[in-house]
Specification:
Elements: H1 9-12, E1 17-18, E2 25-26, E3 33-34, E4 39-41, E5 45-46, E6 52-53, E7 57-65, E8 71-79
Parallel strand pairs: 4-8
Antiparallel strand pairs: 1-3, 2-7, 5-6, 7-8
Length: about 90
């Protein structure tokens, strides 16, 4: 059987979702999620469905009440200050 380009749904499901866990250190530009409406960008996070880190730091999650009493999960990055050289 010959496949012509594209991904099948069998393998495509594996690429979606959260790519990091809480407490994990990330660098600026690291991808945090892929194609998800479950997570919203919080502090130091950019994007809509593909969320990326806006700065170096540590990942943490918060939950808030959204519309219709539905809980919404926000992904945040706590920035880490780099030591200054003298």
């Amino acid at each position: 059987m010959v496949r012509v380009g594209g991904l099948t749904t069998k393998y495509y499901k594996e690429t979606r979702g959260v790519k990091v866990s809480g407490g994990q250190k990330v660098k600026c530009g690291t991808m945090l999620t892929r194609q998800g409406d479950r997570w919203k960008p919080g502090l130091n996070v950019t994007g809509r469905t593909h969320l990326t880190a806006g700065c170096d730091g540590e990942v943490y999650f918060t939950r808030k009440k959204g519309n219709y009493k539905k809980a919404v999960t926000y992904i945040n990055v706590r920035s880490v200050e780099k030591p200054k050289k003298k």
